[in-house]
Amino acid sequence: MKNGISKKTKVYVAMSGGVDSSVSAALLKEGGYEVTGVYMRQWSPKVLSGECLWKQDRQDAMRVSAKLGISFLTWDYAKEYEKQVGKYMIDSYKKGITPNPDVMCNKVIKFGLFYDRAIKAGADFVATGHYARTSLSSNSLASIAKSNFSARHGLSTGHPCARKIYLARSVKLLKAIDNNKDQTYFLYTLKKQQLSKILFPIGNLEKSEVRKLAKKFGLENAEKKDSQGVCFIGPLNMKKFLTSYIKPKQGNIVLIKNKKIIGTHDGVYYYTIGQRHGLDIKDGGGPYFVVKKDIKKNIIFVGTKKDLLGKSAKVINISWINKPGKFPAALDVQIRYRSKCVKAVLDKSGNLIFKKPQHSITSGQSAVFYCGKEILGGGIIA
Asked: Which of 52, 105, 161, 341 is catalytic?
């Protein structure tokens, strides 16, 4: 402290132009932090031509920053998005598996390049608009949102909550209050040592509360629709996108119970396990679901919902935030975004046995491990 003035805590906020990251920045500013908004330029594939939305999103983020009176930066990660996230996604489809680009986006870009650059630039914390919480920081920010703290009541480096964060030895990553919006499924690759420097300002809020706060702060994007697209591109027709990188190749659709050919498809790569729509089947039966794929022979096997049931999975490339003390470990497991957690047992080798059979266990998707509200880690379904 110098001349009675406490140095403010610096936070770099990843701003997408959407309402969630905008309200996150507003709450931090109101809480007394020194906030810098950062827009990360995404990859703009030539095949999408006019479908790229990054310029409009950047403009929205700039307007919010101007409204809040915070600094604004643009960091160009277009090449990194293409090489490390886009290529991963396309190569995965070429192998016949269904990737999870949002997980890779968080790992490589948001909590990789952005996190490292922000901390190196002098940030005490980085923040995002994810619906998630940590065991230390989220409660203090929720009080800011609900008690409408003025800047002089914010968290400076001398604030007890801030000291608690700095001295944290083991911070937990927790599910968001809003179960419908929880995004911890995409965050299992975070490192334990990173969590003490990450803030999720809206993790204790319902989506409806976030919208109300956006209006209260006078943000122009208060009613902006949530992005439904791929993290690094935006909205797109996945099959149409993939045909620019993977040539169509006609093959047979085979009924798994009797090996009867009941239709054709234009490339096994474009379909995923559990998919029902987009299949050219005219036998009058069904509904049929993709239950298996033969990549070498370019065959899609279809069947009923019962044929999708599986009791086990092999999980590879496991990343732990808090590793269980012993194995086999009884865990709550989520095998796709928005699915419910189910009971399962994981052994040291990554063999996952479900208490009850599960539908559409899909290679390339993530199996994420929880203990109640706490996320422990996760990996890729082989």
From this structure: 105
- Entry pTM: 0.87
Q: In whole numbers, what is the pLDDT of the chain averaged over residues?
A: 87
Q: Which residues of 114-135 are buried (b: 16+ CB within 10 A; e: fewer)?
A: bbebbbeeebbbbbbbbbbbbe
In terms of DSSP H, where are the helices of the chain? 19-30, 54-68, 78-80, 87-94, 101-104, 115-120, 138-147, 160-166, 207-216, 238-242
Rama region for 239: left / alpha / beta (φ>0; ψ in -120 to 50; rest): alpha
Write down the catalytic residue from 52, 161, 231, 371: 231
Mean pLDDT of the 29-49 span: 88
Distance CA 123, CA 145 (A): 22
- How are strands ordered across the β-sheet holding 260-265? 280-281, 260-265, 251-255, 299-303, 289-294
With respect to CATH, is domain 10-216 assigned 3.40.30.10? no
Known catalytic residue at 371: no
Where is pLDDT greater, at 42 or 154? 42
CATH of 309-381 given 3.20.20.80, 3.40.50.2300, 2.60.120.10, 2.40.30.10 = 2.40.30.10
Query: What pLDDT score does 5 carry?
Result: 35
- Which fold would CATH assign to domain 248-303? SH3 type barrels. (2.30.30)
> Token pair 């040291």 is at which residue?
348
Examine the residue annotation and report whether 341 is marked as an active-site residue of this protein. Answer: no
